[in-house]
Amino acid sequence: MQCQRVPPFPLDKDGSLFKEVTGALRSAEPMNLEQLDALFCACATLRRHIHAHPEPGFEETSTQKLLTTMLTDFVGVSAEAISTCAKTGLVVDMKGTAAPVTPNAGEPLVVALRADMDALRMTEGNSWLPYKSQNEGVAHLCGHDGHMASMICAAALINRKMAALPSNCTVRLLFQVYSQKYSQKSKLNKRGQQGERERERERERE
Fold first, then answer.
1. Is the peptide bond before 10 cis (omega within 30 degrees of 0)?
2. To which H or E segment does residue 197 belong?
3. What is the DSSP string of 19-86?
4. What percent of the chain has a predicted confidence (pLDDT) above 70?
5. Pairing mode of beta strands 82-85, 89-95
6. Is 175:117 a contact under the CB 8 Å cutoff?
7. Between 194 and 123, where is the model more confident?
8. Contact (Cβ atoms closer than 8 angstroms) between residue 91 and residue 173
9. 127, 45 in Cβ contact below 8 A?
10. 1 vs 163, more confident
11. What pLDDT score does 203 carry?
């Protein structure tokens, strides 16, 4: 899919584009093609902002703050659903509100989605790019900016369906710091695996 409009840059969370998309996301009506195009455009704008402001592993403080703001103000996730992990990472639990269900054997109660956050300690050579890295010696050159923007976009669409998701089911978003370090993957994996333990406890209560 290609945006039918030019993604604005720099990012303006209070601008007309994000107001348009936020209104569509909060509406109970299905999103039409024009509104979906606006959402995709907002996602592209977010990606460009993140690309211009890369941060290396364990230093993603501004990125973490931006993602938290986007999750609460844009996506509509409650602040209570967001927690930090591995210093600058995030774990977001989006719980359903529909009647609970009894899962069949092997069916998960938690589904996790993961996005990397860290940039590389490299210098970007795209001097012509309007949104090239503004942090000397640090750049998003392996797609993590796209990971995060796509996750926010996915979360926005998922959040519209929370009323259809059983209350004992969760979509867990994992924003991972320093993806090259196994120890940090382990920390996030442990948070993700909590879903399996929740499923086992649910079985015990049956």
1. yes
2. helix 182-205
3. HHHHHHHHSSSPP-HHHHHHHHHHHHHHHHHHHHS---TT--HHHHHHHHHIIIIII---GGGEEEET
4. 86
5. antiparallel
6. yes
7. 123
8. yes
9. no
10. 163
11. 47
User: Of 1-5, 84-88, 182-186, which has the strongest mean pLDDT?
Assistant: 84-88
Residue with tokens 């602040």: 79
Q: Which of 138, 134, 135 is nearest to 121 (CA)?
A: 138
Q: How many CB atoms lie within 10 A of CB 94?
A: 24
DSSP string, 120-168: BSS----TT-TT---STT-B--SSHHHHHHHHHHHHHHHHTTGGGSBTT
- Say which amino acid occupies 44: A
Q: Please state, in angstroms and rounded to a whole number, the distance separating the CA atoms of residues 115 and 205.
A: 33
Instruction: Give 4's pLDDT tier (boundaries 50, 70, 90).
Output: confident
For residues 90 and 82, the answer to whether their CB atoms sit within 8 Å is yes
Band the pLDDT of 206: cuts 50, 70, 90.
very low
Per-residue pLDDT tens digits for 31-78: 999 999 999 999 999 999 999 999 999 999 999 999 999 999 999 999
Question: Residue 70 is encoded by which pair of tokens?
Answer: 């986007």
What is the rounded distance in angstroms from the CA atom of residue 189 to the CA atom of residue 66? 23
In this prediction, residue 187 carries a pLDDT of 58
159: closest CA among 83, 94, 92, 110? 94
